[in-house]
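The authors assume throughout that readers already know how a fold can be written as discrete tokens. For illustration, here is how one protein appears when written out as sequence plus structure tokens:
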Amino acid sequence: MKIRIVSFFGWMFLALSCDAAQAKSVECIKNETSVTYLLSHPLHHMESTSKEINCRIEIDPAKKEIKTVSAQIDVMTFNSGNSNRDSHAMEVIDAITYPDVTFSSAFIVQNGDSLNVTGKLTFHGVTKDIIIAAVTKWSQNRLEVNGSFDLSLTDFKVERPSLLGLKCDDTLKFSLAVVFKLE
């Protein structure tokens, strides 16, 4: 009986070790990665992009599966091409007090190349559950992930900016293009 129990635990340990050996941690390629948000106002739309993303995923390359995602962006790295507008945006979100946006996945549902990544996003000192819809493109030595999600300013306790007495939409629309080197 002891031999069977020891054998069972030996096989379990081996199975878990093999699964862990398949997992690989990979960081994004910063100069090829970007996150952009779109803020709409009745009179115009504004886009701002950051290429300073710290993103790490854990993958199983053999199964072409993403197991976990974590990311961090310094809000001061977003650039709309208009320094006055960017300065005002940093005032609105109180970038000195809340300099980072972070995301950590809780679970990932993968169906072929489509992903739904559910996790915790912390922005402006508030943490909320969000779902990022994404599509993956795997090649021999690269993984590209393109996705999007929306964020409500009021949910994150950010006062909606106004121009000429008209407030911006409550929704920030985010798109992301993240590239990972697999070798």
